[in-house]
Amino acid sequence: MAGMAGMAGMADRVGGRAPRRAELGEFLRAVRARLRPEDVGLPDVGRRRTPGLRRQEVAQLATVSIDWYIRLEQGRVGMPGAAVLDAVAQALRLSPSERHHLHLLARDETPVARHLSAPVGDSLRVLLAGMPLIPAYVVDFRFDVLAHNAAATALFGAGFGTAGELGGNTARVLFLEPGMREVQLDWARVARETVGNLRANLARHPDDPRLHEAIAELRDGSAEFTAWWEDHTVKQRAHGRKRIRHPVVGELALCYDTLATLDGSDQCLIAVTPADPAAEGGLRRLMTGPGLHAIGA
Questions:
Q1: 111 vs 115, 227, 254, CA distance in Å?
Q2: What DSSP designation does 132 have?
Q3: pTM beyond 0.70
Q4: Which residue, of 8, 24, 85, 106, has the fewest CB within 10 Å?
Q5: What do you get for the CA distance between the two ends of the chain, in Å?
């Protein structure tokens, strides 16, 4: 047994655990030093030999024992639980990036992302407006359209992004809009990908009532959605190609790329670009023409 413990210790040192534990302690001491008691709602009692919060104050805020917290700073806890690390992160007022860093140092893994509900930022709206020839829109994890540019309206139609209507949610358009299979020429592939993406999003947001409502509506309204939902396929709609048949400019071969925000809101910007010169010409004609007919996002 002693030999096995020695081997485990050597593996920790060789594999980088010992340096990471040392860095963990340095990180915790540094963020503790930058906080004052009044920053976290504690009274400033007594003279402090060093700046920042005391260990026992962090332990109090995180609702852990002072002995456990001292061992955490010394790298002697082993594998701390994710929930207790989040409590420490909250006590130390860590930013999302710092929380991520804490989990990597202490657990060698990234934490479960927190969802921070937020409107689409002004800078993101400026970015959308600054792409006049590239249809682009922002969706949340429910596939609700939160913002879109004029090029997206020209491609997808005047009703695209309208709250309360089919066009306000790209998954609803895809499965519930009549005639979508004639417009979306790769309908089965794109639709199955969408189901898998919603399955992955539900794992990240299991308690979101609006997401559950959207999935229930799709299951009630589409046999294909129900069948694919029940096979538990998980996919991420990151990038790809698709073909659409537009009523004004005909068939278009398009690429799409999904760009995720990093602010915890779980919003994505989806940009649609031409896959060939013919599609590029068709999109340009749409940007200047009056023919606005809805098609599937």
A1: 12, 32, 35
A2: T
A3: no
A4: 8
A5: 60
